[in-house]
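Sanity check

After download, print the first record. It should look like this:
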Amino acid sequence: MNKPMDIQIVLIALAIGLAAGMLSGLVGIGGGIIMVPALVFFLQYNQHQAQGTSLAVLTLPVVILASYYYYTQCIAQGHPIDLRIVGLLAIAFVAGGYLGVRWALKLSQEQLKQVFAILLIYSAIRMLEWDQWLLQWLKKS
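Expected structure tokens:
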């Protein structure tokens, strides 16, 4: 059963959505990295609820304006977005999303949180290019 939505919950949800939307537009992230932890920490959602809510947001055309703006700006800069790749990614995303949800629902809350956290840590290490440094450090130890 859904909890009643008081003004505090409405404001928190709007703030989470705004932050996720802004970061999505800024660096192409949002649902998984921003919304899921925020829903868990600020609205006390469990991991399954948070991930399901994040996916549900994607079903709506919430990023159409940001996508359109990127599309037009990339064309203007001479580096257009390849809509064929977008189509292929979307098809695979639908299939992968279905398979991922089936797998996630078989995991406990704790296991799912651990998988999620490991993925975030791994992504951060790779994005900061610390992976090579870490491998060298491990070889020395």
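If your output differs, re-run the checksum step. Summary of this record's structure: The chain has a mean pLDDT of 87.
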